[in-house]
Amino acid sequence: MTLTSSWLPLWSLPVLLLAATALSIWLYRADRRSCGPLAGWTVTSLRILLLAFISFLLIDPALVKTEDDEKLGEVLVIIDTSPSMEIADAGQDGDSVSRLAAAEQLLSSRWTEDLRRKFRLSFHTLSQKLVELPGPPGKLEAATSSGTDLGAPILERALKSPREDLAGIILLSDGNHNAAGDPRQAARSLGTLGIPIISVGIGRADPPPDVSLEAVEAPGKVFSGDEISAEITLQSTAIEVPELTVSVREGDRELGSFLIDDLPREGISHWPLRFRIDEPGRHKLSIGFESVKGEALAENNRGEVWIEVLDDKARVLYLEGAPRWEYRYLKNTWDRDEKISLDSFLVPAPPQRKLPDEFPRTPEALYAYDAIILGDVEPGLLTEELQEALLEYVRSRGGTIILVAGPAAMPSAWQGTGLEELMPVELLLPPPGRELGAQLARNGASLALTAAGEESEICRLVPGRQRNAELWELLPAPRWYYPLKATARGSQLLASAGSEKAPALVSREIGAGKIFFSGIDSTWRWRLRFGDLLYRRFWGQVIRWAVSEQLNAADDKVRLGTDKAVYRFPDTIEISALIEPGAGGEIENGLVDAVIQPVQEPGETPRQLRVRLESIPGSGGRYRGTLDSREYAPLLSRPGAAASGGAWEFELTLDIASLENYSSRADRAKILFAVEPAAENESLGIFCHENNLRQLSELSGGAYIPLSGAADAATHLPVKTRTVERTYTYAALDYPWGMALVLIALLALEWITRKTLKLV
Question: What are the phi and psi torsion angles at 496 (to 5°)?
């Protein structure tokens, strides 16, 4: 122990004591005339004691005690509480117990106390987020969110603990991961830091007999009357199913029924479905089948898909500069499409090379089209008025222009012209001394989808993300492509060509409209290998993407829409509206509000969110606004609304109080959309994914053990104990009330003594 002081140095204490003694003796000389020596010295002693105590307080003395203490290493005990942990597995004795209940039994046993003897334990629950508990959990509750993230939350929490203290992580889970991101990356990072994961697998490892609907693939946008080609993916596990009837329903109405009589006993299989929807609007379809005899889980037999049905025909204008194969096949394809009204024009060869006389030349004539296609056409053929009209058509009118590259003019001749603004790509300059034509790569190279292309409905040739990406690489290689780069603001690269990854397919938003650019002109060759199906599907999807906003009408004068029918949280929601002149009056300040409201259950309190839509200058009544996930997340709060893998449904309306007679059309000016949870449906995790857990453990330097071997968890963790020097300080002023009472007592005693001796 050592003695220290805070206010004054320790050496000042004897000085203060001497001063107190001297002062008291001097006062005694003044008092001895009034009392005897005994009384005088008594008062003097009390004064010396009082002043000594005040001197003691002035230096604030403290006793400092130092001890060595042993600190145990920390272990994070993480319990998976995602919805799949509610699944009951058959026990060895024939009973059935949920995985959460099995975790509760383990945590309430001697297992926890045995761990406490070697480690400091902190307890956490895990679904999509990690939540720290104040102590060992009692009753565990399953999370309402549909998903499990076995990666990022664990790594984030581990990094908050000092490396020298953290001995490892014990994870109690069924291994079902369905969130974004690869948990193996987190496991590798933990392994680099020397933090092992000990995975305790909960649930049966062998898949039970079951048939599950793994995925539903369907086009997002179709025209009224189109035959809709969808595909379902089924997974069979150790089960014999002689016949399976799959139905497509919208509410109580059945749109189609399909018989599968050769379902495999094991493995994944894909099955096509074809049906029609005639009514325009957005439709939520339920696809699935009834419970199969002997299967473990019926909740994974159905899925949902949203399809937007567009009304009316698409008016398309096509101008081509050369009679190439791409033009011939595109014209033929769109002429045969009953939902497309095509006006096509071919520029004649020199010396008669000029714009055809029948080609629309006024802005009003151009604005009547839903999409405009420009092939290998040099800008010089278009008057300044037409060039400006094309720019206005996209920027303000919200139209879509499709650009199809060609070796003569597109996009090389567009560089440096007034139409360059439309280009979503930039032409890489040729090396010095080389002509422009030498830039054309004639080495043939396969096409490859980007991440954006894999998500885009334009590029979805077959259902299934991986299968679709593989198919694109099998498509006939383009004979040439321009060395380009996608640099324009708002550009999105969908597919690349060659080892240079030159932009082959690019989309772009510009003002109120859109641009689609094809950097190759040999998609017609797809027909030589795969027939007409893929070619027609691709270009049909391009047109439907191009005109979807224009045809998404909620009223004759008022149109309302979102860029997607279904979003996945946390996607940004884009809202657009068209209020044509004469829709009921002038709109004040050029502003309108969109109102988003969840589709309510009976008895629910209405909740709304207003989004300000701003006018696009010179657009003839077009409005646009966006909504990010932070703004609409509070609406995703209905308990269990998406816990089973379903989507939150919303209705979107316009609020334009200044428009006369608008209320009479309010019911028609409405559109539905949905937001899916970030993770996939957890009900598919019907068995323990031992392989997932084993990989996490091995990559982190830990070990995987089944629930039956959980008692050995401690043996796989390094014992991290270290000596910690602990200091204890006992200062007088840490007890202010005690010191005050002593001071008051001494003052009172001195005063009472002087009062008794009649010195006051």
Answer: -120, 165
Structure confidence at residue 640 as a pLDDT band (50, 70, 90): very low
What is the dihedral angle through the alpha carbons of 215, 218, 221, 225, rounded to the nearest 10 degrees?
-150
Could you tell me if 59 and 10 are in contact, meaning their C-beta atoms sit under 8 angstroms apart? yes
Instruction: Residue 715: give the domain boundaries.
Output: 73-206+687-720
Ramachandran bin of 175, using left for φ above 0, alpha for ψ from -120 to 50, beta for the remaining angles:
left
CA torsion 283-288-289-290 (nearest 10°) is -80
Q: Sort strands 166-173 and 73-80 into parallel, antiparallel or unpaired.
A: parallel
**Which of 260, 290, 310 is a domain's end point?**
310
According to DSSP, the residues that pair with 233 across neighbouring strands are 215, 270
**Do both 356 and 447 map to the same domain?**
yes
Q: What is the CATH number of the domain that holds 299?
A: 2.60.40.10
Contact 121, 112 (CB under 8 A): yes
Looking at the structure, tell me whether residues 452 and 350 fall in a common domain.
Answer: yes
Please, what sign has the CA dihedral across residues 623, 629, 630, 634? positive
DSSP for 574-586 reads EEEEEE-TTSSSP
586: left (phi over 0), alpha (psi -120 to 50) or beta: beta
- Domain check: are 109 and 253 in the same one? no
On the 0-12 / 13-18 / 19+ scale of CB atoms within 10 A, 387 is: middle
State residue 173 phi and psi, 5-degree precision: -160, 165
pLDDT digits (tens, 9 = 90+) for 257-313: 999 988 998 888 889 899 999 888 888 899 999 988 888 778 788 888 888 888 778
Q: What would the pLDDT profile of 185-194 be if each residue is shown by its tens digit?
A: 999 999 999 9
- Amino acid, single-letter form, for residue 200: V
Q: Are 66 and 726 in contact (CB under 8 A)?
A: yes
CATH code of 196's domain: 3.40.50.410
Q: What is the mean pLDDT of residues 632-637?
A: 78
Number of Cβ within 10 Å of residue 236's Cβ equals 22
The 3-state secondary structure of 283-336 reads EEEEEECCCCCCCCCCCCCEEEEEEEEECCCEEEEEEECCCCHHHHHHHHHHHH
Q: Is it the case that residue 728 has pLDDT exceeding 80? A: no
CB contact at 8 A, 379 and 353: no
Vertex 172: Cα angle to 170 and 175 (nearest 5): 115
Same domain (yes/no): 611, 747: no
* Domain boundary residue, one of 508, 536, 551: 551
Neighbours of 706 (CB within 10 A): 15
Distance CA(519)–CA(514), nearest Å, equals 16
Q: For residue 347, is pLDDT > 90?
A: yes
Instruction: Output the six-digit token pair for 462.
Output: 């077959």
Q: How many domains does the chain have?
A: 5
Which amino acid is present at 223?
Answer: F
Residues 510, 402 share a domain: yes
Q: 272 and 161: one domain?
A: no
| Residue matched to tokens 């802005």 | 363
Using an 8 Å Cβ cutoff, are 106 and 123 in contact? no
Strand order of the β-sheet with 61-71 is 2-5, 61-71, 722-731
Residues 626 and 732 in one domain: no
Assess contact for 17 and 724: CB atoms under 8 A.
no
- The CA distance from 23 to 17, in Å, is 10
Pairing of strands 609-615, 703-706: unpaired
pLDDT in tens, 380-406: 999 999 999 999 898 877 889 999 998
pLDDT at 756 over 50: yes
Question: Minimal CA–CA distance to 388: which of 396, 400, 398, 378?
Answer: 396
Helix (H, G, I), strand (E, B) or coil at 660: coil
Relative orientation angle of helices 325-336 and 532-551, to the nearest 10 degrees? 60
